[in-house]
Amino acid sequence: MTRRELLTRTSNGFGMAALAGILRGAEAGNTEKNPLAPKAPPLPAKAKSVIFLFMHGGVSHVDTFDPKPQLTRYSGKPLSAELAKVIKTSFIHDPSKAILRGSPWEFKPGGTCGTPVSDLYPNVRNMMDDITVVRGCYSDQFDHAPAIYLRSTGHQLPGRPSLGSWVTYGLGTENQNLPAFVVMSDGSTKSGPPMYGAGFLPAVFQGTVFRSGESPILYLKNPDGVTGQVQRETLDFINKIDRIQERTRPNDSTLDARIASYELAWRMQSSAPDAVDMNKESEATKKLYGIGETVTDDFGRKCLLARRLVERGVRFIELISGTNVGADWDEAHTDLTGSHPRMAAKSDKPIAGLLQDLKARGLLDSTLVVWGGEFGRTPLSQGDNGRDHHPYGFSTWMAGGGVKGGNVLGSTDEFGVQAAEMRVDAHDVNATILRLMGIDHKQLTYLYQGRDMRLTDVKGDGEFTSKLIS
């Protein structure tokens, strides 16, 4: 067949290919007009929303959700030479010369299932029938920032999309008058905004930060003398200028996100005041979360606001407990017995209240609650009253959203040094969160630098997912 004959016979095929391209372009154009429009999950979904409770700084697993009687028995003695060879620490220079340290807190059975939890979390302990503890977590990053990036984005370096961004990219949000992905933090983190950034995804998918205190969102009310009509005309004029600028920057997602943020801000002025107004909550509900109590008021408000956002169709809410200015779980380096009771007291009652409230309102079945941090703390003693970073074995837990309650998955060895049974890394956890939302982590991709990128890269264990889902 000559080249001319080939082109003649396949001309209709070229035309159909061109038409398909035009149609794909039209569909893309519709998506770009509202990239956060709600999308049906490709697979059967257990959860509609996620509340991620991130314990910033590294919680000691052997002092919270992973009891180690042998560690207590051999407290004060050196770690075996065999185990000392397999761990690396940040501040203990020679693990082989460090001594084991048992937990100063007592573990007691929780709920009817009997899952043991330490006295640091007495209120959460009462909710263990709704919780699955995952004790076999591990990481290969033992410093904060890369470990947080790995947990949040699937990569130890900044610049990748966060879990919340991937979820909203894949599913959009049911409420177009509130942000799809909300972040509430005590302050700055050791990893900074890339922890909840959109990375190479369009900027519209990045997390929106709400403030602490009674006014999480500023400027919801127009200044005196500025009417709604004036504001609308101003926004229309800004939009017109931005669209002119867009012609010279057709692929600038930052500009698109800015345009979308102006419009969202306009819509939020009618919806957000009701969402953040906690005066409508009963005193019993506020008490459940610890609102009004000095220690629990701030995190309690965050947890209650998370429930109110879930009720209104917000897709992903991340609550960060701890900051980069000394008030976080990382104070355990030198003050384990001071830092952990202080940080646990801030979050224990609000978290238990959140689970109870979601369950009472029929929302827990459709809301996945995840608790965890970037790594655990070493079973070894750092100085007189400390524990160092420890990524080789630590705990996280999940509740609601299709998760089997009253369950424990995985384990660490008898001293809590290494993940032993069913080792679970950040990719496994993230793949499971996506699956509970009705997404196959292998299919949620974004073309970047010539490659279909995904949150879990080339990892993600299906065995863990199948054992966790009820």
Biggest sheet architecture: 8 strands, mixed
Q: Count up the domains.
A: 1
> Helical percent range?
25-40%
CATH class: Alpha Beta
**CATH topology, which one?**
Alkaline Phosphatase, subunit A
Instruction: Give the overall average pLDDT.
Output: 88
The number of E-state strands comes to 14
Secondary-structure element series: HHEHHEEHEHHEEHHHHEHEEEEEHEEH
The CATH superfamily name is Alkaline Phosphatase, subunit A
Quote the distance from N terminus to C terminus.
Answer: 59 Å
The largest sheet has its strands arranged as: 6-5-7-1-8-11-4-12
Oligomer: single chain
Q: Gyration radius, to the nearest Å?
A: 24 Å
Low-confidence stretches: 11-32
Q: What is the number of helices?
A: 14
Protein structure class: alpha/beta
Give a quick rundown of the structure.
This protein is an alpha/beta fold.
